[in-house]
Amino acid sequence: MREHNERLLLSIIRGLGPTPASHLARHSGLSAQTVSVILRSLENEGLILRGQPVKGRVGKPSVPIMLNKRGAYSVGMKLGRRSADLALMDFHGTVLDERHIQYRFPAPKRVFSFLQNGMDNMISDLPTQARSRVVGIGIAMPFDIWKWNEQVGAPMGEIEAWRSIDFAAEVAAFTEIPVAVMNDATAACYAENTFGIGPAYLDYAYIYVGFFVGGGIVLNGSVFEGQAGNAGAIGPLRSSNAAGESVQLMDVASLHTLEAAIARIGGDPTLLWKDGSDWSDFADQVDTWIDEAGHAIAAGMLSACAIIDFEAVVIDGAMPNGVRRRLIDCVAGHFTEMDSRGIIPPVIREGTVGVGARVRGAAYGPIAAQHFLLGSFSPVSSPPVLLS
Predict the structure, then answer these.
(1) Residue 379 and residue 367: Cα distance in Å, rounded?
(2) Which run of H or of E encompasses 42?
(3) Could you read off the pLDDT of 351-364 as tens digits, one per residue?
(4) What are phi and psi of 72, to 5 degrees?
(5) What is the architecture, at CATH level 2, of domain 197-352?
(6) CATH 3.30.420.40 region(s) of the chain?
(7) How far apart are CA 265 and CA 260, in angstroms?
(8) Whole-prediction pTM value?
(9) What's the whole-number mean pLDDT along residues 321-340?
(10) Nearest to 378 by CA among 232, 208, 225, 201
């Protein structure tokens, strides 16, 4: 019960920012005495700080309570089919350090070497007393990555090796920091819901366009993972292509289809994955892909909104900002042209976290799992557990 209430107060502070103890008591439903006891404990643990007193019109000055950015750290890795990203994050959710590698396919040996070397360098750059506050390693990756050997274009057996990988054992070979694995699109959804426009909507579908399109679902302000942690995968959703044929959304709206189009004209599709690339060298292929992907996403979301009354569809992805905005405009345009009788059309919104959403979600996962109420960081996300 004490742990739940500690998480509750930390979640409220995370959601509201610096907040006086009296406001924490009101938002949590806990007594002022209970809040005071818990805050003293959290302060002793180095998780919160007390700000300078703020004078009001009446009564004693209020003292804002805030998260201590040095209270906890975590490492996140996004393991993708064409690249991997690594990030070190503090308790405020600020990324302190980042690393990136590109590859033709994700060979396990190279990926774990990247994780070990990058993490060692990142943590060694922290102050000595802070290194013991690294609470975990979050790894965001596509589930069943070995099933996509043909699309990735890897030599036979290289991707299949991921089927038998024990992440805990692999990471334990070079660190005692605990590791947790989550779906990469779900991690991106967590990042948008925590750091992006998530608080503006209670129920929305989230789409992340990467090598394969994926996504997540937010219900009542919380990310809904489902029984196997893969709810809102989006990619396998039945949709239609420009010819009206029934296809899976991932077969039209994924970046691997743009890769294939670029390769067919003799271009170098690896340029899609370079940091800062504007994709202007492939304008014709990008234009065609945007129109076809926009139509497929709109058709898929029309079906999804018939199941859950989403108030918004939030779209983000591993692409330049201008391309993402054009894709969103295209989705919105196609949506208005479709037969939406019986459905309240959702708002089509641009995600705000961007290409780093998956690694930010992965990095924040261990901090959230240890210190916050899972699923949502809203101050009204969970009732208190009263202490006797």
Answers:
(1) 17
(2) helix 32-44
(3) 999 999 999 999 99
(4) -160, 150
(5) 2-Layer Sandwich (3.30)
(6) 73-182+358-371, 197-352
(7) 9
(8) 0.89
(9) 94
(10) 201
